[in-house]
Amino acid sequence: QQQVKQSPQSLIVQKGGISIINCAYENTAFDYFPWYQQFPGKGPALLIAIRPDVSEKKEGRFTISFNKSAKQFSLHIMDSQPGDSATYFCAASKSGGYNKLIFGAGTRLAVHP
Amino acid sequence: GAGVSQSPSNKVTEKGKDVELRCDPISGHTALYWYRQSLGQGLEFLIYFQGNSAPDKSGLPSDRFSAERTGGSVSTLTIQRTQQEDSAVYLCASSPLPSTDTQYFGPGTRLTVL
To answer: For FRET with A23, which of A55, A108, B73, B89 sits at 20 to 30 Å CA-CA?
Structure first.
């Protein structure tokens, strides 16, 4: 019930291509779904997040698509750049009190020039 | 302003020794979280602090793990009698309020138990 499953484990994309990372959750009480970006030697940093009242959220080249009935959400990186090469984590949490994030296993993205 | 800082950045210890990991959250942030990131895995929640109290310790893997927070600021995670499976990166995050969505992470402490 607490798991968040993320795929793929690693991804190689050519510069200018679209990177797509998928996550699935089980707990229907989750109502906050962020994506974090982590560069080597750094802590994760919030990239973009969505709540279930919308099916899509876009910020620049980054878009979250959310499918409540399927309990899935995905991150799309348009026009991928070498600087986007990092590890991406999806996460989920439920409202009420504090924000205990349940993370996916992460996707290591490499964008080749 | 200054972000979340953690020390040491790297710690190598021998099996059976005790270690202390320190987290300095962003000034004024009342909520503090510890996570563990094992090789090839996602972040695993360990403990949550609201001020100096820890209402959620559910993620601590065993009684060898403990944490405290003093003055509503600095937090220390202590691992007693370390085991090789404790090797991981330990991350601390803070947020202005418990209900705040965004958590600000420190760079982590890489712990290696030989």
So the answer is: B89
Token duo for residue A29: 């009480």
Contact criterion met (CB < 8 Å) for A100 and B33: yes
Nearest of B94, B79, B92 to residue B15 by alpha carbon:
B79
Which tokens is A47 given? 């990239």
Amino acid at A98: Y
Q: Which residues does A62 contact at the CB level (< 8 Å), separation at least 6?
A: A35, A47, A48, A75, A76, A77, A78
Hey, is the C-beta of B53 within 8 angstroms of any chain A C-beta? no
Backbone φ and ψ of B100, nearest 5°: -65, 130
Say which residue the tokens 């420190």 belong to: B106
Q: Are A105 and A22 in contact (CB under 8 A)?
A: no
- pLDDT, one tens digit per residue, over B84-97 is 999 999 999 999 98
How far off is chain A from B43, nearest CA to CA, in Å?
Answer: 6
Mutate to test the interface with A, among B48, B103, B104, B110 (most CBs of A within 10 A): B103
Residue A74 has a pLDDT of 98
Cis peptide upstream of residue A40 (ω within 30 degrees of 0): no
Rounded to the nearest integer, the mean pLDDT of chain A is 94
